Amino acid sequence: MKNTFDRRRFLLSLGALSILPKSGLALAGEGTSASSALIAAAWRGPNSGDTYYAGVLAANWESKKLEIRYATALPTRPHGLLPEADGGLLVTGVRPGSWLLRCDGNGEVTQQINLEEETSSARLNGHAILSQRGDVIYTTETDSKNGHGKIGVRDSKSLKKLDEWESHGMEPHQLLLDSDGHVVIANGGIPRTATDKKYDLHRMDSSLVRLDGQSGRLLRQWKLDDPRLSLRHLAWSHSAAAGKTFLGVAMQAEHDDPAKRAAAPVLAVLDGDDLHIPTRANDGVGYAGDITAAYNGGFALSSNQAGLAQLWHPGAPDKLVPIVELQEAYALTTWAGPNPGGGVLVSTALGLVRWHPTAKPLLLPWPKKMALDNHWVLFNEA
Prior knowledge:
disordered N terminus; four-stranded antiparallel β-sheet; mainly beta; globular; Neuraminidase; 28 strands
């Protein structure tokens, strides 16, 4: 894969239209309903030992420029980002995460929790979500003493741990709320040492779990037939046409055989009460780095190892169609764009790529040399 801008690879947007319903689709010009967007992101400098930051990037579609609104230095590598009402962020350290950090809308650190000072032996796995009532924050954690998956229940203001729930699996990773305020968790299922080294992969036990959002009681658990598929990242996507909401699960293969890993599927979908693999189409690597909602019930998945972002749609469930092919296609977030919505913002080695089924694609170069982490989140558009 070239580390240069290849327009032919970039303009794969039109090819993706072949799997989308034709009704309501009409190619638009450069204009959109919003001239700019604010995106919560985490990054470091170009070298592996550079400092990590979390902050907000401002994308101006008219000037085609990207700027850093604020950047907060972090103790170690971050992962999940939780935007807050004041323009600030709650940032979560990744395995074995020992810190939670909150900054305000100016990037000033207002709180920092050191988990090593807590009585629990649990450490963070990289993601957090605010409860439906807003009173607590749920965090995915692993008990460092026995490897059991935990869900930390923390006061949303003080970040003090109030309770710990069983995740009913190993290595819980991302979690989301469902429409009833219950907690849906992707248990990655990979045994790891206290220093995050994988081992005994034959014992993998990955699952999708729903817990009661008030009590932590187990409501439902789903497993796939292949135990070497690690369920990791989650996104909800609503299809107005079908009147259904799907949960997309991005997967990472952990097979011993390289050929099996390369041929492994990267997407599972929860449709109602059925968790299934809709397509064996994949990225040639078996490693989905991120997932986000796309057009009308669809999902975009990134594969940074393959330099690829692909689109899945329930109207053509057996297909994955490339929408961006650029090195280090990684962090994804949904971008509404012009009517009818359903676009995606993709981080790449070269910069931010804007994709939408009814608008021309656009690339905004990074304001400085920077390497994005797995995830970013759209704050708002103006």
